[in-house]
Design brief:
The complex is a heterodimer of chains A (about 110) and B (about 110). Chain A is mostly beta strands and about 110 residues long. Chain A is about 0% helix and about 55% strand. In chain A, a hairpin with a 6-residue loop joins strand 4 and strand 5. Classes of the chains: A mainly beta (about 110), B mainly beta (about 110).
């Protein structure tokens, strides 16, 4: 079936630098995407979402970019902090169903 | 705490036993999801409720799994005749719309 995947399983960045986490999706009909952050032993935490009629959406220190032409999603974190260390998942709303499809995640490590 | 609440947080059971997990969604969220997550993987959809109606179940969901949401508020997930392959984190999420699903902390099941 359709799936959401990530290019890099682990990303290490220096504290204060910007982070970019990438995600590829395969269903061109998908119209809604969410980025989640998951810390060890906890459930996924909603970060930011974007609909397919948008190319960019900004939150507090985070920006999501959507490129529908190449079916690519990215999460940018500005001025990465130690508290940003976690696994990040993109999730795709499966069209015509109620479910979200998650990829395997990218682990972000923030180096002091 | 007004977030999604799941109980128990941890459950260890012997193979062949039945287990039941409970999820209390955010108040007034009429949409409720169950997901399963194994180590190093993203959450995998199990089932979805809108109010008390179970509207979608994963084709991967064994007949040993059953979920209920009798009054459209809390939900239970039961696994009968547990197997070692059932060991995972079971996550519940709720939402007021078809977007922005908010997850609980999960119930970690270990089948020995």
């Amino acid at each position: 079936g359709e799936s959401v995947g990530l290019h890099l399983p682990t990303l290490s960045v220096q504290e204060g630098d910007n982070s970019i986490i990438n995600c590829a999706y395969s269903n061109s009909a998908s119209d809604y995407f969410i980025w989640y952050k998951q810390e060890s032993g906890k459930g996924p935490q909603f970060i930011i979402d974007i609909r397919s009629n948008m190319d960019k959406r900004q939150g507090q220190r985070v920006t999501v970019l959507l490129n529908k032409t190449v079916k690519h999603l990215s999460l940018q974190i500005a001025a990465t902090q130690p508290g940003d260390s976690a696994v990040y998942f993109c999730a795709e709303k499966d069209p015509g169903t109620y479910k979200y499809i998650f990829g395997t995640g990218t682990r972000l490590k923030v180096l002091a | 705490d007004t977030g999604v609440s799941q109980n128990p947080r941890h459950k260890i059971t012997k193979r062949g036993q039945n287990v039941t997990f409970r999820c209390d969604p955010i108040s007034e969220h009429n949409r409720l999801y169950w997901y399963r997550q194994t180590l190093g993987q993203g959450p995998e959809f199990l089932t979805y409720f809108q109010n008390e109606a179970q509207l979608e179940k994963s084709r991967l969901l064994s007949d040993r799994f059953s979920a209920e949401r009798p009054k459209g508020s809390f939900s239970t997930l039961e696994i009968q005749r547990t197997e070692q392959g059932d060991s995972a984190m079971y996550l519940c999420a709720s939402s007021p719309t078809d977007r922005e699903a908010f997850f609980g902390q999960g119930t970690r099941l270990t089948v020995v």
